[in-house]
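To whoever picks this up:

The nightly regression suite flagged Membrane protein as changed. Nothing in the input moved, so I suspect the structure step. Input below, exactly as stored in the fixture:
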Amino acid sequence: MADKSDRSADQMDKELTNQLNKELTDHQRHESSAKDKRQRKVNPRLETIFSILLLILGSFLIAVSFNVFLVPLGIASGGVSGISILVNRMTGFPPAYMQWAINVPLFFLGLWLLGKRFALKTALGSFLLPLLVLLTSHFKPLTDNAMLASIYGGIGVGAGLGLVFRGRSSTGGLDLAAQLLHRYTGLRLGLAVACFDGVVIAAAGIIIAPENALYALVGLFATTKTIDFVQTGLAISKVAFIISDRPAAITEVVLHDLDRGLTQLDGRGGYTGEARTVLMVVVGRGEVSKLKQLVRAADRNAFVIISDTAEVLGEGFSLP
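Regenerated output under the current build:
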């Protein structure tokens, strides 16, 4: 009799889960359809404007960081900007003009070899960044400490590049040269970029001073980490995997009390071999405590794993 009662309870649990999932799917389908219609109407123009704004702001940050931190102390952390610093140290030639002198031929070479679509993506950045470097060249240095300059200069350049990349744009320069090397030699793109940066940093150690190459490496590290930080952002989400004997009860509180969707995965106990339902739910950092409270109230014996996610795309989170 007890077995029959347990089977009946399990059956009701499964039926409730299926009904909740059906309601959620219908709701999401309706919301997604309406959302897609809105996006088709407004997204292309708004995305273009947003991309240009990010390119302008990012290029301005790069230019200011370049002039107030890197140029005064000769910290050439790779790229066209690093080459322009080396040439400036040797000849006194203004960095902005040197950047144009490199970017313009590379742009037309990219237009010829890589095609119009790729080259046009870099056109504005290739001309805008040197212009902003020229306009901010009178800004005074903020420090005479090479280590501070390499760290803060790297952070500033990384923040600017991160904004540019978030807008799906480019500042041209040796990125174009790396694309060409990748296209015609098969060398991996990341390795091609590293090769160009390595040559510039090594040249800084020879032309300026060995210490400058070390400071340039610090700046390059700061730039890389800051780009990643800007790309993923501060809003780190959490993903929770919940294994419970009462999946329907937890599904209900997550859907209605937390107002989050979730996914049911088929699992199997490693020791018992029994089929189990695994619930996966993604929440914001501020919702973790409430999620744990709701799960504990629904099933005190639930097994919960919570971990960080660098980025989440989709409805309720970031746009793709």
